[in-house]
Amino acid sequence: EFAGDVPITLIIGQESQSVCENFDTSEIISAILEIKPHDVMLIPGDKRIKCDTIRMICNKQSIGFSIFETPEEAYVNAKTLNNPLILFSVKRWK
After folding, report:
1. Which residues pair with 43 in a beta bridge?
2. What tens digit of pLDDT does each residue of 21-60 get?
3. 22 contacts 14 by C-beta, under 8 angstroms
4. What does the DSSP 8-state code read for residue 76?
5. Which residue among 31, 42, 48, 52 sits deepest, i.e. has the most Cβ atoms within 10 Å of its Cβ?
């Protein structure tokens, strides 16, 4: 709602396997379907996140999809898109 009709890049996932309470694949899909971003940049962290399932959902919704190893790498790439809003939702170990 805050963004209005502005295209959004959603960076979502988890930084590494050491994140105890990871995002469940269904939670990521729910966020994608609710936010309706123009592009999704997934940080899988480990095998608990089902990348192929999320890719399929994005393809069905005509949402751009990329996978990155680190949140920093995704952010650098997100800045190259013409989407003026980047929503960062990556669970990190701190």
Report:
1. 13
2. 677 899 999 999 999 999 999 999 878 889 999 999 999 9
3. yes
4. H
5. 42
Q: How far apart are CA 92 and CA 90, in angstroms?
A: 6
| Dist CA 31 CA 25 (whole Å) | 10
Q: How far apart are CA 35 and CA 14, in angstroms?
A: 18
- Kindly report the pTM of this predicted structure: 0.88
Among 56, 92, 55, smallest CA distance to 75 is for 92
How far is the C-alpha of 83 from the C-alpha of 15, rounded, in Å?
A: 23
Which phi-psi region, left, alpha or beta, contains residue 88 (left: φ > 0; alpha: ψ -120 to 50)? beta
* Token pair recorded at residue 71: 């949140």
3-class DSSP assignment, residue 37: coil
Tokens of residue 94, six digits: 């701190």
